């Protein structure tokens, strides 16, 4: 995730994504490279920050580049780390390097006992986080598990993201 700083309030999220792709052709965008996550206030009434989901390739370039062109304006880009998903246990709030969870690794794609990067399984995905959640739920209220654990469609991930948005609204300057 990256944070695009000081975006004019007048720009909505679809416009923002379109403009970023249009004004920054050097990134050779492919489908799914850039997705809007949420807004974060903190620059008075005129500006807000946009939190964006990018693929690892784009993230790597942006962390060197540190800026993006948005219309006539150059906007600063920084990494945004309040939303971290562990690459080993697939939980939120810490990285693989700092993982103290005794469980895992679990695969973010197939829920198998290997790192996502080592996954050789093709075809349909399975969500480890939702499978864990379902263990404590009645059959009728269980979540679907036919998705990968890092997709925005995952209810567990959605919930984690919402919690961050809520804390963001309460405390706009803290990061
Ligand atoms: Zn972990
Ligand atoms: Zn796998
Ligand atoms: Zn899930």
Write up this protein.
This protein is 25% helix and 21% strand. It has 175 residues and is α+β, with helices and mostly antiparallel strands. It has 2 domains: 79 residues, Alpha-Beta Plaits, CATH 3.30.70; 71 residues, no CATH class. A hairpin with a 2-residue loop joins β4 and β5. It is globular, with a radius of gyration of 18 Å. It starts with a strand and ends in a 5-residue tail after the last helix. The C terminus is likely disordered. Bound molecules: zinc ion (ZN) (3 copies). The site of one zinc ion has 7 residues, from loops.
Overall body shape: globular
Number of helices: 4
Helix-strand topology string: EHEEHEEHH
What's the alpha carbon Rg, rounded to whole Å?
18 Å
Helix content: 25-40%
| Unreliable segments of 5+ consecutive residues | 171-175
- Secondary-structure-derived class: alpha+beta
Strand content range: 15-25%
- What ligand molecules are bound, each kind once? zinc ion
Biggest sheet strand line-up: 2-3-1-5-4
CATH topology of the largest domain: Alpha-Beta Plaits
Mean pLDDT: 86
> Count the strands?
5
Q: What is the domain total for the residues?
A: 2
The CATH level-2 architecture of the largest domain is identified as: 2-Layer Sandwich
Largest sheet: 5 strands, antiparallel
């Amino acid at each position: 995730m990256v944070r695009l700083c000081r975006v004019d309030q007048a720009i909505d999220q679809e416009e923002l994504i379109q403009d970023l792709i249009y004004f920054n052709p050097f990134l050779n965008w492919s489908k799914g490279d850039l997705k809007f996550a949420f807004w974060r206030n903190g620059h008075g009434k005129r500006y807000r920050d946009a939190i964006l989901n990018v693929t690892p390739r784009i993230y790597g370039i942006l962390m060197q580049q540190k800026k993006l062109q948005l219309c006539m304006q150059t906007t600063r880009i920084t990494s945004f780390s309040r939303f971290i998903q562990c690459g080993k246990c697939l939980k939120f709030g810490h990285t693989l390097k700092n993982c103290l969870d005794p469980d895992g690794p679990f695969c973010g794609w197939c829920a198998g006992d290997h790192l996502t990067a080592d996954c050789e399984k093709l075809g349909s995905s399975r969500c480890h986080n939702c499978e864990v959640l379902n263990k404590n739920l009645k059959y009728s209220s269980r979540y679907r598990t036919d998705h990968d654990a890092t997709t925005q469609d995952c209810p567990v991930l959605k919930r984690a993201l919402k919690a961050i948005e809520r804390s963001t609204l309460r405390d706009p300057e803290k990061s």
